[in-house]
Structure formats: structure tokens, C-alpha cells
Amino acid sequence: MSDFQQARAALGARLRELREACPGGRLTGTQLAARLGWAQSKISRLENGKQTATVTDLQDWAKATEQPGASDDLLARLRGLESHVRSWRRQLASGHQAVQDAVSAEFARSKTFRAWESAMIVGALQTGDYARAIFTRYAELQRSPQDTDAAVRARLKWQENLYRAGAKYHILMWEGALRAMVCPPQVLAAQLDRLAGVIGLDTLTLGIVPFGASLKIPPANGFWIFDERLVIAEDWHAELWIDESVSISTYLRTWDTLRESAVYGADAHSVISRARRAHGAP
Q1: CATH number of 169's domain
Q2: I need a labelling partner for 195 at 20 to 30 A (CA). Which of 5, 23, 69, 252 fits?
Q3: pLDDT digit string (tens) for 11-47?
Q4: Which of 83, 115, 138 is the last residue of a domain?
């Protein structure tokens, strides 16, 4: 069982305790469901750690079990859950800008940044037009508010750290990320020009894993490592913020293993040029 699942199960156990310790007398799941106007199955899923409660769910639960003072404890437990697994549904309720601002704060407090991306250009190196295409498509997928221009400005702010003295960016990308047509061809061509232009920047080491490279592990999902204190990894339903040292060590080993297959400098430039030609750019 993962740390997240354990924490959700613990929250469910706490909810059960509140139901059974109701000052007016122990409530059954059916009785509590009737008070809340919920299906009894929701009570069961929450108590058994099969569903993540919302803020409103927890506040209503505390009131319905006649223990409103328990609300603060329940919400603190929920914040602990969300600090590790941040669902896109909740994060994007008001759009993408808030998510970008949260990551921007991590860039600002970090000296060393490592990244691996297999399917798109790393956000810290994206052009405005490329980022705009990405945000537009993800907003459509997640059915979230489209605050695209604000999100693009927030993402481009990340790049200020590329020019900060003492910062070190170590970025790896699969060649497929250079070829994925997630934007119009002319936007991708400009994005590839941007990549070629940052090779040699003293704060940045850019490695590309070519299609023909020998690989020790599959070039799977992308992730970012901030110093050695935080990993951010994305899935389709949520963004994972990982601060457990053992897990961070796993990501560091993964990054080091992928790095062994990468090319740098002039060789990386050649791979970028090959991708440009594949899209019809001169």
C-alpha cells in the first residue's frame, strides 16, 4: 500500500470513529447517509479509504456527527493527502495559472534542477507559443477553465531562473519529445530553434536521448527533481509531489540511468537539427 493510500485509509478510520462516537448516540452508515443526503455507498467508500473526501465532505461530516470541532483535524489530514497527490480536477478548478505559480516557487528556492521528459519539451525551456498550445490542449482534456495567457506568463517566469547565478539545470529529453506534433509545425520549429540556442548556456546541461540509443530502462513518464528534496511527476489524473527520501533516491537513480544514454553539445544539436528536418524545416 502506498503512503497516499495509507493516509487515505487513516482518514477513513478517523471518519468512522466520529460516526461511532456521535454524542447523540452511535450512528449507522445508513443513518449518517440520511443526515447528509448521500448514498450509503459514499459513506462506505470514504470510511474504507476508497474515495478522497472534499473539503465540504469533511465539514459536513463533522457537523452531521455533532462534532464540528473535529473539522480542523479532518482538513489538516486532507491537506496532508493533497500535498502528495494533487488531483488535476481540484488544482485546475480555477485554471492553470495557480499550478504554474506553485511550481515557480519551487524553482525560486532550488539551486539544482533535474528533469526528464519523454513526450514534450520541458516546461522550463518552452517558448510562449509552444506553452500556449500545451495549455490549450490540456484545458480541453481536463475540461478546466482556460486561463491560457495567464498560465503562459506564469510558465515563462520559470525561465528567469536559467539566468540566475549559481543555478544549475540538468535537463534530459527523449528524441520523441522533439517530434511530437502537439502544436502547429511552425511553432514546433521555433521551439526547436530555442532548444538549439540554449546549448552552451553555463547554467544549463541539455541532453537528448536519441531514438537509436541503447537503453537500460524504458523512457517512461516525465519527472522533475528540485535539489534532492522534492520530485514532481505527472499522471493523467493527478500531479505527484514526492518528498520521501527513499522515493527521491529512486528518481535520482532513474535520472542517472537515463543520462547514460544521452548525447550532449554538438551531438545534441545534431539530433535537434534532425528533428527540424523531419518536420520540413530547413
Answers
A1: 3.30.870.10
A2: 252
A3: 999 999 999 999 999 999 999 999 999 999 999 999 9
A4: 83
